[in-house]
Write a structure and sequence with these properties.
The protein contains eleven helices and 15 strands. It is of the alpha/beta class. It folds into three domains: about 120 residues, NIF3 (NGG1p interacting factor 3)-like (Udp-n-acetylmuramoylalanyl-d-glutamate--2,6- Diaminopimelate Ligase, Chain: A, domain 1, 3-Layer(aba) Sandwich), CATH 3.40.1390.30; about 110 residues, Udp-n-acetylmuramoylalanyl-d-glutamate--2,6- Diaminopimelate Ligase, Chain: A, domain 1; about 100 residues, Alpha-Beta Plaits, CATH 3.30.70. The strands form three sheets. Strands 5-10-12-13-14-11 form a six-stranded mixed sheet. α6 packs antiparallel against α7. The longest helix has 13 residues. One of its GO terms (molecular function) is metal ion binding. This is GTP cyclohydrolase 1 type 2 homolog. InterPro entries: DUF34/NIF3, DUF34/NIF3_bac, DUF34/NIF3_sf, N-reg_PII/ATP_PRibTrfase_C.
Amino acid sequence: MKIKDFFPILEEMAPLAYAEDFDNVGLLVGNAENEATGILVCHDALEAVIDEAVAKKCNLVVCFHPIIFSGLKKITGKNYVERVVLKAIQNNIAIYAVHTALDNHKDGVNKILCDALGLVNTKILVPKQNFIKKLVTYTVPENAEKLRNALFDAGAGNIGNYENCSFNSSGIGTYMGNENSNPEVGERFEFVQSEEIKIEVTFEKHREAKVLKALFANHLYEEVAYEIYELQNAHQNIGLGMMGEFETALSERDLFQKLKDKLGADGIRHSALREKNVKKVAVLGGSGSFAIQHALAAGADALVTADLKYHDFYQAENRILLCDVGHFESERYTKNYIADFLMKKITNFAIILSEQNTNPVKYF
């Protein structure tokens, strides 16, 4: 198999279209056409990880955090990022990052965190905006079912827990073709009034090319009439963070102990105790200060996240317990999830979980 042959599997786990605009995901280093020798899965693609990949004969490193986040103007080895890129190139190793593509997936980073803590009844905390579009098209009744099914097969019509969703209405369409036309119904220069079915379907924006290809391939008309709209609806199954609840409420101190036990959090920074039990919990793996107001609006008793700054804790205002467990700790099971996913999908190829602990934060 070539390195590029693994990309569809990785995209099934973490579609690159789900990533945030600021992020840098996908193939960051290497030649996708090279034959793959093995896959090493890690949290951060540091120098020690590249050395491990060389030793274990893996020429594809799949990492959670992208080693190249902003642009590189030079690659001279003066810092840890440049040294990783140089070493990877010198050893013909490809690096592929998933980051917020997996953060935004409903089964990704935050579901993993919820499962680790034993939270149930989970749902997305911050649903993704500007991700849904609507296609409106018109066809004759005898073409409607075939066209509708083709659009469904292309990924249109999926809404939450439902698929094959559409709205259909009947009306009268009019047209008159010129000397270059070849109308399916009527003749050139004839004013035609024809019964038509209006079909409306929504789709995720990254599927637009595939949906349009299905539209044109399965429509009867010489000139396909269609409209595409961007919708303001949030996507309830894609987004950052997650809300869940404990089956039995915990005291705040019991919550801290669970966070230590389950996440290996050696030090938990938190806002003032409210002396109230914790039932509903919002989680956001990684830097999550932006989610504080979302957690409050969702009625969370606590928010488990990382990288909170001094003034962020003031936002608690005795309405929520803010828990900063550490960036790495909040994502600690992510590389295991990636490796397990790949092992289930690829049963005849070497998938290796990195032994490197890449957490840069130490506690005294």
